[in-house]
Write a structure and sequence with these properties.
The protein is mainly α and 106 residues long. Helix content is 49%, strand content 0%. The termini are far apart. It comes from Theropithecus gelada. This is ATP synthase membrane subunit f. Belongs to the ATPase F chain family. InterPro entries: F1F0-ATPsyn_F_prd. It is found in: Mitochondrion membrane.
């Protein structure tokens, strides 16, 4: 049975799997359409988490967590070389101290 609501006006949870490619192709991929999508997302987030009567720090915490995850993903290639291995080279004791070996027993 065909849906009464046009595919363009349906949310992602309401779209059937067969209608998904057609639903994605109905988006506006122009620069103004992309900017409008970001604007709608910003206002949705602002009104839901920040502009409330009894607001909390959760909205700012989510933004901070997303920022930290983004920066970690950007610097992952540099950070993966600095992981401590089981026996890192600078912390291994390859040779015993020479002070104990240099003494002759009495």
């Amino acid at each position: 049975m065909a849906s009464v609501v046009p595919v363009k006006d349906e949310t992602l949870l309401e779209v059937k799997l067969g209608e998904l490619p057609r639903w994605i192709l109905m988006w506006d991929f122009s620069p103004s359409g992309t900017a409008g999508a970001f604007r709608r997302g910003y206002y949705w987030y602002y009104n839901k988490y920040i502009n409330m009567k009894k607001g909390s720090i959760s909205g700012f915490t989510m933004v901070l967590a997303a920022y930290m995850l983004f920066i970690y993903c950007l610097s992952y290639n540099e950070l993966k070389h600095e992981w401590l291995r089981k026996y890192p080279e600078e912390y291994t004791l390859c040779t015993p101290p020479t002070t104990f070996l240099a003494r002759a027993p009495p």
